[in-house]
Amino acid sequence: MKWSQFFNTSIGKKLLVGATGLFLCSFVIVHLAGNLALLKEDEGEAFNIYAAFMSHNGLIQFIAWGLKVVILIHAILAFQLTFRNRAARPVKYAINPGNQTSSWFSRQMAIMGSILLIFVIIHLKDFWYWMHYGDLRPVTYNGEEYNNLYLVVQEAFTQLWMVILYVIGMIGLSFHLIHGFKSAFQTFGLNHVKYNGLINFVGVWLFGILIPIGFAIIPVVIYFKSI
Ligand code: HEM
Fold this sequence. Notes:
Helix content is 76%, strand content 4%. It has 227 residues and is mainly α.
């Protein structure tokens, strides 16, 4: 079987969704670590220097474009798998017992993933687009000029609806990753009684709770400081 044929099968698509999902998990850790500089009481110096480094480093820019392709592949294949599964079982079970094999989180994957995708599209338009194509105000640190992306973020989060949007987006992120992280390990057959406890712990506590709260704190703190 050719690779192209393999990735057209359900198992091939599932493997690609798992691999791209784990790559995106590693991205959220790095992204949160960088964004926490927004909470430093330094008028944005650390964040603007970090943002300039990210946008001028060739390797990081290459990975950043790959990231967008990975998000697209992950979303398209996950939608295809969801519709394929539904088509294979067009009539819903008369009683959906919320049974032993499928948790509530696993049944909400498509909905939470969609909320997250809508969030990411709005987010890219608001921040990433501004950073690369917007007319940013310059700011000078140690005689060097930087784009003041910090100011764009601060202004965005003085609006309550933006803060609410981010908190809803992070609830979507939390529910999506609580199931998604451990599901990727299952897809690769890497679940084993010995490690399942650790995989569940990391999935729930790191990706389901700490990281979404870490992201959500940023708009909430900026908003309350601004009023
Ligand atoms: C409070 C939360 C967040 C803030 C303040 C924030 C801020 C930013 C900023 C300023 C940028 C443009 C600069 C850059 O490219 O690094 C950006 C890009 C991006 N953000 Fe966020 N972000 C947040 C949460 C998230 C979350 C939860 C996700 C995904 C689940 C996400 C996905 C992305 C992606 C994919 C990019 C484009 C990255 C690139 O091209 O380098 N962000 N974010």
